[in-house]
Amino acid sequence: MATPKKIALWSDTDDIATFALQVCEDIRESDTRTLHDRLTAQCAREPGQMAQAMMALAAWVNPEERITARLDRVERITEVKATNVMRDRGVRV
To answer: In angstroms, how far is CA 33 from the centroid of its own chain?
Structure first.
């Protein structure tokens, strides 16, 4: 019988926080398709570590914050990204 594969976890909470913070920065500053592809591959390779990162991100969200405040934040991020894409394509904004 095959031995189950051990799921790797980060042992240092600083490593979890560093990764989660990098995702927060990348969603604002990087190509979201590239980020999505990278995270999808990492979830397949390192599911335990990705679960730890998701839990860290969830802990950083204030559940008492109004949903409209969260939506406003997402809209600001996407608006800036859309403006940058348009500029990169030579469209005057």
So the answer is: 12
Residue type at 7 in one-letter notation: I
**What pLDDT score was predicted for residue 87?**
87
Which tens digit of pLDDT belongs to each residue from 8-67? 999 999 999 999 999 999 999 888 889 999 999 999 999 999 999 999 999 999 999 999
**Domain range list for the chain:** 12-60, 62-93
Sign of CA dihedral 29, 30, 33, 39: negative
39: CB partners within 8 A, 6+ apart: 23, 50
